[in-house]
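Students often ask why we bother encoding 3D structure as a string. The short answer is that it lets us treat folding as translation between two languages. Here is a chain of 81 residues written in the first language.
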Amino acid sequence: MKTVQAEINRNGVVTLLERVKIKRKSRAKLIIYDEASDASGNVGNAAELLALMRSKPLPAEAAIDAKEMEHQIEEARNSWD
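And here it is in the second language, the structure alphabet:
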């Protein structure tokens, strides 16, 4: 089984975003993601998100060490019961 990225337009036409080599006719499953968009209908991208995160770093006092992080995770897990 292989995973490849594709786009589907409003008319239902699927375009693969990478080359796929297959030895024989094969079946495929298409998963359509309902991506969030802004009011203009434009979808953001990872590069924009990373740029935003870099432009507004967390203050040093917000950082926790690995031990404290594990403690918080364990506390959250135990609260589910």
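Translate back mentally: The mean pLDDT is 84. Keep this in mind for the problem set.
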